Amino acid sequence: MQNDLQRIVSEAVVVDGEVFKQLVEEAVELICSENGRVGAFEVYGRLARFPPMGEALIIGDLHGDLESLTKILEQSNFIQRMRQNPSSVTVFLGDYGDRGYSSAEVYYVILRLKMLFPGQIILLRGNHEGPEDLPVYPHDLPFQFRNRFGKLWRMVYEKIRELFGCLYNAVIVDAHSLMVHGGLSLQMRTLEDLAFAHKKYPEKRILEDLLWSDPSENINEACTSPRGAGVLFGRRVTEQVLDGFGVKLLIRGHEPCWWGFKINHNGRVLTLFSRKGPPYFNEYGAYLLMNLSMEFHNAEQLASHVHKF
Ligand SMILES: [Mn+2]
Pairing state of beta strands 269-272 and 261-264? Predict the structure, then answer.
């Protein structure tokens, strides 16, 4: 089945604007209408929930790095594992485009996988897929589309912006973990807060905190973030929010880390960064591959399931 991956990756490199746009259209139609039971998970608003069973592959920021994405799927053999076991789930933590040169190719691969395994793949929303009034700089995606797709670029870009609005705010694995792209704030109290953060934005800033925030060891509560959006949140925030949702661990991306991952807040926050190369200087990328039924108390005990490359 490794052929599946090779085929999709080689398509990604040659596909034209018309076919690419069609794939994004199909993905918008599929993902935006997901509700209730979808394969291995349960969808409520833009929150996906599932029990701590089966294998999970969790991938952090990719930022246009097709090589790392290919390596992760190859090493983990997870396409075959998803085929063999319908309870195997892949969660992407967001930030698919910008920075790296292969944004279109990364989108092509993840959307093709979503079409192939709709009930086993969850695509979280990153700050690079945020609402239009929370822009990121630099945002290379439109320029990469223009180089790649010529005159069709604008239509393709508009379609993919539509997709951004449908990507997931959060994932909860019951009694196990909460997954988001960025971080937490004390305003996140109920499942509705997570599920409908995009509908309540901009009156409520929960979506901004989910997409932009970072953990800090220097504070207990929260303070303004140097990023200019979201907050820095301290250990007490992590404890209060995770305890409120009855989970042990926050799994998130968003921050480059030298080893491809890092652990904060007494083992209750695991950061994964799954791409390599400029403009970041991390030596390793990393992803998490684990059986969700495995007993654990903190992220330190999951370190042997974090694969560095
Ligand atoms: Mn990010």
Answer: antiparallel
128 labelled catalytic: yes
Alpha carbon of 97 to ligand 1 centroid (Å): 10
* Domain span holding position 223: 2-308
- Alpha carbon of 139 to ligand 1 centroid (Å): 12
Q: How far is the CA of 253 from the centre of ligand 1 (A)?
A: 7
Residue 249: HSE in the Cβ half-sphere, 13 Å Cα cutoff:
22
CATH number at residue 76: 3.60.21.10
Confidence of residue 301 (pLDDT cuts 50, 70, 90): very high
Does pTM top 0.85 for this prediction?
yes
Which residue in 63, 128, 198, 265 is the catalytic one?
128
> In sequence order, which residues have a C-beta less than 8 Å from that of residue 276 and are 6 or more positions away?
65, 67, 68, 282, 284, 285, 309
Closest CA to 107 of 155, 146, 58, 156: 156
